[in-house]
Every structure is written in structure tokens, then in C-alpha cells.
Amino acid sequence: xxxxxxxxxxxxxxxxxxxxxxxxxxLVVVVNPRSGVEKLSREDVTNIFLGRYRQFPxxxxxxxxxxxxxxxxxxxxxxxxxxxxxxxxxxxxxRVIFSGRTSPPLQQQSxxxxxxxxxxxRGAIGYLDxxxxxxxxxxxxxxxxxxx
Length: 148
Hints:
Largest sheet: 5 strands, mixed
CATH topology: D-Maltodextrin-Binding Protein, domain 2
Distance between the termini: 25 Å
Radius of gyration: 15 Å
CATH class: Alpha Beta
Keywords: Signal
CATH superfamily: Periplasmic binding protein-like II
Number of strands: 5
Signal peptide: 1-23
Organism: Azospira oryzae
Number of helices: 6
Strand content: 15-25%
Strand order of the largest sheet: 3-2-4-1-5
Oligomer: single chain
Order of helices and strands: HHEHEHHEHEE
Protein name: Phosphate ABC transporter substrate-binding protein
């Protein structure tokens, strides 16, 4: 299989197969409870994760974290947040990085690593399946399913 075809196939499976779409479950955006953030809008989260600005409304520096490119949660996160496929997000970051404006979110190796990093860093923000959330983090946005 051609390397460029794999992301498209992955997206198609995630969006078209009901079982695959449900595998990502309820995605939520989480922050450290010490961040002072109670709730974020979809626009706030979009701006933070796309590098348009890296501050919470309170002024605290936001450190966005994401899961590996091949994870279903990452695919679903960007689809639900901005309606973009992994290939579109990668192309966006290629342009932004080339321009020197900002850098992409810090990649975590697993949901557990992302959870631990958010729990131990006041400015960290990430996304997880709701089933993984525990008392060490605070949910600030719920991302509903979007239809293609």
C-alpha cells in the first residue's frame, strides 16, 4: 500500500464504520485543575491546538499535548474539532512550521502518558476518551461526534 494512502484509509475507517467511530468514544479536552480554567470554548481549543495563540483566557501559557498521528483519538479529535483529516492537519502544520510562526502540539506516546503529563503540569491541555479521565484532570470541553 502506498504511504500516502494509509492516512486516508485510516480516516475513512474511523468515519464510515460505526464500530470504528465508536471506538474513540466520547472525547473530552482536559486541563490541570491548578490552571484556573473552568471551561473553554471550541474556538479557544481550536486556537490553542492550531498554534494561533498559546494562552488560556486567564493568561496562563497553554501547552497543548496530542496523541500519536496513527491514533484513532487524534483522528477523531481533529475531525470533531475542526472537520479536518489527518492529512489536512499534517499539511497545515507543514505550512505553519515552514513559516516559523509556531510549533505543533507536543506528542505524547500514549493516552496514559498524556493524562500523567496534564496532571503534573499546570499549563498542559490535552484530549482523551472520557473513560480515561480521573480526578487528576478537569474536563473543559466535550467534543461531540460530527458527521462527514
